[in-house]
Amino acid sequence: MPTSTRSRKTPTASGSAEALAKLEPLPENLFRVPVDLLLTDHYRQTLVSEALSAIVTAPHAAGTPARAEKIAHFLESDLVHHMNDEEEALGTRLLACAREEDGVPLLLARLRREHAAIRETATAVQTGLETLAVRRRLPDPGTFAAKAETLVAAVRATIAWQNRLLLPLARRRLGNADLWSLGQTMATRRGISFPA
Ligand SMILES: [Fe+2]
Fold first, then answer.
1. Ligand 1 center to 2 CA (angstroms)
2. Please, what are the domains in the chain?
3. Using CA of residue 122, residue 126, residue 129, residue 133, what is the dihedral sign?
């Protein structure tokens, strides 16, 4: 998935609309290949980060309320599910099957630390987005912009190392039974029937 940050464009209001137009629901068949699903979800997070950056650039552009609502919903549902998937469902299985040299306890400690910071910042950003979604002015645009930029940077940073280290490790170590049950857990969390 194209999660590279090397050629990032300057965010614009139309860029926000374009990014969110590409945001598709997770295909249900990916729950059978849960590591691919996590990778796809990282790409979706990159799209939402682009859209959020564009809102910071032009918070009162036409179309902002609908986009702000969509991003707020993603932060409170998709992103939360994803972080819980990695910390609980994936982390537990990796701890059980990894080798000592994989350093999984350290990787999971880093994951939890970064996710805790993301959860805290996302909550503040969500409040600002909900204000914009009902066409009201932000009480403190500077603080909203700073929090949003912090969130975007944190999400991009954690995606980068997870794609480089964590997900490849999961591919190497998890067996078919682990992958199957991981996918089932992730589907159940979202109220989705695991595809037969
Ligand atoms: Fe992740």
1. 14
2. 29-189 (1.20.120.520)
3. positive
